[in-house]
Amino acid sequence: MLIETGHFALVLALALSLFQAMVPLAGALRNDERVMATAAPTALSVFALITLSFGVLLAAYYRSDFSVVNVFENSHSQQPALYRITGTWGNHEGSMLLWVFILALFTALVAAFGRSLPLRLKTLVLAVQGWVGSAFLLFILLTSNPFARLSPAPMEGRDLNPILQDVGLAIHPPLLYLGYVGFSVAFSFAIAALIDGRMEAAWARWVRPWTLLAWTFLTAGIAMGSYWAYYELGWGGWWFWDPVENASFMPWLSGTALLHSAIVMEKRDALKIWTLLLAIITFSLSLLGTFLVRSGILTSVHSFASDPTRGLVILAILVFFIGGALLLFALRASSLKTGGLFAPISREGALVLNNLFLASATATVLVGTLYPLMVEAFSGEKISVGEPFFNLTFGPLMVPLLVAVPFGPLLSWKRGDLPAVAMRLVWAFGFSLLAVAVSLLFVDPTAVFAALGIGLAVWLFGGAVTDLAVKAGVGRTPLPVAMRRFVGLPRSMFGTALGHAGLGLTVLGIVAVSAFEQERIVAMKPGDSVDIAGYSITFDAIVPVRGPNFVADRAQFLIATAEGRALGTVSSSKRIYTARQMPTTEAGIRTFAFSQLYVSLGDLSEGGGAVVRIWHKPLITLIWLGTVLMMIGGFVSLSDRRLRVGAPRAPKSRLRQPQAEATG
Amino acid sequence: MRRPFALFVLIGGLFFGPPSAFAVQPDEVLDDPVLEERARDISAGLRCLVCQNQSIDDSDASIARDLRILVRERIESGETDEEVVDYIVSRYGQFVLLKPVFSPTTILLWSTPLLVLLGGGLYLFSRRQAHGNSAVETDGAASLTAEEEARLRKALANDPSDK
């Protein structure tokens, strides 16, 4: 009965979603305020119904209700409670329900906190959200019903895929979807502006925080997924340029571009049409990502054929929204006025440059991801596009962009003074040169590119510090005054600096681990030692372990310095999950400062020996710590009162802070 | 075989083959570290035929192991890197190359980054020319047209808080 309630709530949500998509739109077109006013309550009701539906599925998973096919196929009564809950979205049907749940959440947020929005704009935004919601609810109900029943109910489930039985599943998909789906708000604002034929001041003020919020979540989601893959898959890689990773990376790249162009639009009323197009592209790429992953077309043409309905329905949704949006853009964009002139050397110019490179990078990843499909479709030839291609094309696009980053925030609007900015960056440049020299002299004299990469990372970090120092007036005013000004800087300035500094840390981690990683592959017996990067690792013993739903062989290793001082232990296991009889490898990771020792257990041999793969990964944690800094930057920027989501219009008497032209 | 993208996909339910062992085994490693280094570099660019987007260096599939051993045999017999790769391509086709060769088929793929970058740059440049030099030489209000002045006044009146 409860299950049917969840199913029914979903059907009802679809009906109301269709109402939300059509009726308020008709009201907006006829300028009937009473009809337009139905949009917000409808959106809130849809959210309530989908919440109920999602809650029912969660409960079914938590209680191991195997009369539900979806629960039976993806859960097991002996799983720990956390995995019985997170298993809800560890499968196709459940993850689509999570998708619409988050969409409804964002829609409800716009409905609830959009009081200061012009009614017409708000109505149109909610209507477009209603279109997206209706399409996906229809998709779920027609092809992916999570509430289908099974009779008689089996006694035991088939278990969640063991690789997903990890705390990562609790965090990664919800964050990723908050990012993906969060961009729908910017998309809906763009479509609303196109329908309306104008972009009011409220438009930019609203789109920017929503974009920033979605971007922050997507950053977190991708970083979390990367770290999860790193520790869970047991072979030490953290990014594979895999199509499914690219699917999440493309909206991030274009979302980053959108974030920056929205600044220009908000502050200078320029780049309006481009910002609007980017908002459409970013959410289109989110939809494309959903399609690529959900349809299975990328991973195997076979699985696409095995359930063609799903793939075709998502493809239809994709074509409808992307095609429709771009058509609308082509028809209406010219009616929007552009403004805000600026010289090439200016803050605006720097942000345009940022957008140019990010757009090229997005296009590169997009074409690289889809190209094998295209070639196969048109000529039947099979080719592969993998990591070496992306390293060779994406990498060079990033270098000039990263070099330019510290200049951007220091240039003034309209017309900047490049030599003056360069003078201010002289300290950052000095530290960067010093880092290159240190790397060449003390780490590896032959690794020239790595040294330059480290220099680039320090340059980014130093640029971010310089940005704040210059804006606080360090060096030009007495220190106490500068300190006071520093504390009083707008939050969005700290956001920018944190974001750029985080980027520097991430680059440093990537360069260090790519260039200086060490690896040993050895067959070891208890008592054997291996030396790596100044550590000595001794194979202690293998002990059998029993978990709630798996059995494991756990190998323990002793870590010591090369001189023999003990530093602790690390253990790596091979698990067999009993329900599926599926083996997994649990890597052993020990962090020393920012570097990690990574131990992965391979095949066991007779007599208690094993094949062991050991890596030393210098500074690898900086890759993710950098993204944490970016996220903090995002939230700090969001807390800026001018940008606070749903903040009421600022009072007219508000004091203007010095140099208030912050950059987010 | 293990699949790195699994975590991203598996939110949606791909099936996993059972992971058995991991990639390069100690018995495959060549004694000469220089040759081994070359073998690893070559392996990283060759696709495991039965895996998704995984190099033979990363894959634990048995065919990947066979290919790794084959690569090492060819290297030990004195072939250059290109000869080894050409031999593997002649047996398995272009599909094995994770970095596709530059050919009429892949010309669009390889030129995308440059096309978009140059195309975008040219567009920006041409628009700047079309705007006339006023955009470049603008220095405040002097170059605003009457219409722009009106819009500016309107914008300021509408939106005093937005700096």
From TrEMBL, chain B:
Keyword Membrane tagged: yes
Membrane-spanning parts: 107-125
Keywords: Heme, Iron, Membrane, Metal-binding, Signal, Transmembrane, Transmembrane helix
UniProt keyword annotation of Transmembrane present: yes
Signal peptide: 1-23
GO molecular-function term, one example from the UniProt record: metal ion binding
Domain CcmH/CycL/Ccl2/NrfF N-terminal: 16-156
Family label: Belongs to the CcmH/CycL/Ccl2/NrfF family.
Function comment: Possible subunit of a heme lyase.
The protein's name in its UniProt record: Cytochrome c-type biogenesis protein
Origin species: Notoacmeibacter marinus
